[in-house]
Amino acid sequence: MKIVSGFVVREVGGKTFAVATGALAKKFHGMITLGGSGKEIWEALQEETTEDKIVHKLLDVYDVDRETAANDVSAFLAKLRKAGLLLA
Amino acid sequence: MLIVGIAGLVIGIEHRYPYLGKHCAAYETDGTPDFSVTVTEEMIEEEKAKAVEIPAGATPGYFESLAAAREIAHRLPAYDAFLFHAAVIEYKGEAIAFTAPSGTGKSTHIKNWKRAFGADVGIVNGDKPILRFADNGALYAYGTPWAGKEGWSRNVGLPLRAVVFLERGKENEAFPLSPADAAIPLMNQILLESDPGTVASTLSLADRMLGQVGLFRLACTPDVGSALVAKNAIFG
Predict the structure, then answer these.
(1) For chain A, what is the domain count?
(2) Which pTM was predicted?
(3) In CATH, what number does B82-235 get?
(4) B134 contacts chain A (CB < 8 A)
(5) Residues in A touching B181 (Cβ below 8 Å)
(6) What is this model's ipTM?
(7) Residue pairs spanning A and B at CB distance below 8 A
(8) What are the residue boundaries of the structural domains of chain B, listed by start?
(9) For chain B, first and last CA: distance in Å?
């Protein structure tokens, strides 16, 4: 899986935002705030990856147990999928 | 081609209906445009489709004017400027921007500033001012012809002192905001539907702005005391 193309990510006021641009902005209105593990998950989704690989990445970066990381990733991916922002 | 001077920029507008010329009369100028925009029938139709409320007697010219504002807004980030959905007043030579979702009471609040402080207060713009960074880094708020229902518009630019996020309240209370607290409400009031480069520039400008102007949340009632509370928060 991978995130659709067309997002621009920038820090504004110390918060990280992903904003849809170009053709994507016509389909997806609004912006996504990336906090905590959201940033790492987003980064991982820039190229083709799997849910399992993303969980491993979080376990490398954060001092969390596998279940917490898996839940974080699963919840985040579910939101993206619901909004139609994940490819495959 | 209509040529207007807005926010220190000379802008050419190719258009077809007479409304726009009248609407921009106070901003008309001559000279070589820094950039030009062309409004098409398709853009006018898109503007109609996007309108949340359509004022009585709205003509194609009215929507053409909105489309022109949008086209201009897309070009501004290249000049360190962006369109901000807010009402801006002058207080003793400085600008204060009030922003809130439509219908919150920006106009009422500004009338209260007028009542409380009289000649110290002037209008800059009622709806779509342009914010632009000067070469020395200072941020200025400029009037534009796109000024909302009241038509509050003055062709001036003043240093922006503060941005106030308005909401309705039972009491009048003002709180300073951190850039992080202000970021989300700010993002909702700037135009971000554009190409990646323009959006990235707009976000960088918004970030700069949050770092250098006063930021406040104001819960306010419709009465004149709201202006006193706001003024004390901003100016101490």
Answers:
(1) 1
(2) 0.93
(3) 3.90.228.20
(4) no
(5) 13
(6) 0.89
(7) 60
(8) 2-79, 82-235
(9) 47
